[in-house]
Amino acid sequence: MNTYARQALMALLLCVSSNTLAQNSENNWTLGVGLFEYGGHFGAKYQTQLSGNHFVSGSFGIIGYSLGYEFKVNEKLSLGATLGQQVGYAEDGYFVTKLNYHFSGFDNSGFVIGASLGVKEDDGDCLVLCPREDGNGLESAAGIHLGYKF
């Protein structure tokens, strides 16, 4: 993902979050671990309600960031999609769909567990100090995550 695309995504997130903060109070923070959902192996997610059962989120982790959308299916389940980048795993970006289970209910504080499935750009297998070719191929990506919503 190039620099302009990253800047556009961040600007969009800031606009949406500031607009929705002024309109409602359905906001929450989640701390969690796992791939994709929390911006890397460990991170924080801020989520706010757009309308009805529709929510958007932004996450920043120790190795990346993500932007997401969730639809509340019922009090325990939500479906959504996440896109972002993670250093060393999906440096050129990823897009995954997700299913989350909220142990105490979607609108309450408590543990959340989920799974993601999608694609990431093939970055090669090298992490540090070795030559890599930047390819445009896609490969499958899957991950699980666990968090605590406040």
Describe the structure.
By secondary structure, the chain is mainly beta. The chain has one domain (3-149). It contains 1 helix and 8 strands. The N and C termini lie far apart (32 Å). Residues 1-22 form the signal peptide.
Question: What's the quick description here?
Answer:
It comes from Pseudoalteromonas byunsanensis. 14% of the residues lie in helices and 55% in strands.
**Proportion of residues in β-strands:** over 45%
Helix % is: 10-25%
Instruction: Identify the strand order in the major beta sheet.
Output: 1-2-3-4-5-6-7-8
Shape, please?
elongated
Q: How would you classify the helix and strand content by structural class?
A: mainly beta
Q: Average the pLDDT over all residues and give the rounded result.
A: 83
Distance between the termini: 32 Å
Poorly predicted runs:
none
Number of helices: 1
DSSP summary, beta strand count: 8
What characterizes the major β-sheet? 8 strands, antiparallel, barrel
Q: Give the topology string: H per helix, E per strand.
A: HEEEEEEEE
Q: How many structural domains in the coordinates?
A: 1
Descriptors for this entry?
about 150 residues, 8 strands, about 15% helix, elongated
